[in-house]
Amino acid sequence: MTVPNGTADPTTLTLTFVAEFDAAPEAVWQVWEDPRKLERWWGPPTYPATFTRHEFVAGGESRYHMTGPDGDQPSGWWRIEAIDRPRSLEFSDGFAGSDGEPLPGDEPVTMRVTFEPTDRGTRMTTVTHFVSTEQMEKMIKMGMQEGMGLAMGQIDAVLASAG
């Protein structure tokens, strides 16, 4: 697997990660679809995620929180915009309050994930689209780029344990 640190492009307001896995696209798709597998890698190793809701269908929503080493629990939400199993998915991702519901006034990012078969397995490309330069700079300053790279670095272990 190769998970680069992510490529931020301020001209297109995107942050792109490309990773290759020695597993079929269907297996890589499962690490997004199955909430128990998803929470084993979504979030950096020091901030494991817990999904309390995960409706993995177009129009479905997810609610999650991460638990930090000091017990803090930042929360987030997803709204699944499109699914083309096992080729692509697109969702909105935003910050949530302690009740798991979207924070008023928060502008979510949009993430598009594609899964391409390769000779060895699957190439997964994740592109985050920001609504403004200010949002992109703020989220990268918060550690999004590093955190996503660390999170994706855990997918191989999830795939290996899937048998």
TrEMBL record:
Protein source organism: Actinocatenispora thailandica
Family matches, as InterPro entries: ASHA1/2-like_C, START-like_dom_sf
Stated family: Belongs to the AHA1 family.
Top-level taxonomic group: Bacteria
One of the Pfam families matching this protein, by short name: AHSA1
Domain called Activator of Hsp90 ATPase homologue 1/2-like C-terminal: residue spans: 22-159
Protein name per UniProt: Activator of HSP90 ATPase
